[in-house]
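Task: sequence design from structure.
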């Protein structure tokens, strides 16, 4: 079993299905399905019941989900711990703005570009609504 497969499993549950999970993970849906089948084969149990338009957790899947989330959180903490020793700043910044708020007075693109240059390991997303 690989952390990647656990991340895929958790993402499918969080997104409510394979199609949305594949989009979020930037994978093909068949490739994602293959990885989950391999995980289920290795564990010897089905984790998900696949319907025509729905995906639900099996009882085993519900029990595994808690441990999968814990394993992924632990792996993230390992990366954070190592990052503290090497001085790397990692993570995700999400910025929301009101439509039309960006102006010549406040150069949002420039500020975000400067931040990205200083902290290349930090992901940035901007939503304007």
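Answer:
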């Amino acid at each position: 079993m690989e952390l990647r497969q656990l991340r895929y499993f958790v993402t499918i549950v969080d997104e409510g299905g394979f199609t949305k999970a594949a989009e979020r993970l930037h994978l093909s849906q068949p490739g994602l399905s293959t990885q989950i089948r391999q995980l289920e084969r290795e564990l010897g149990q089905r984790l998900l019941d696949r319907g025509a338009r729905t995906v639900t957790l099996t009882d085993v899947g519900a029990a595994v989900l808690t441990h999968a989330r814990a394993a992924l959180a632990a792996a993230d903490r390992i990366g954070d711990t190592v990052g503290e020793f090497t001085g790397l700043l990692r993570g995700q910044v999400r910025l929301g703005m009101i439509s039309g708020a960006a102006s010549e007075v406040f150069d949002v693109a420039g500020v975000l570009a400067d931040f990205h240059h200083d902290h290349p390991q930090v992901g940035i997303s901007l939503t304007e609504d």
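The two ends are 41 Å apart (CA to CA).
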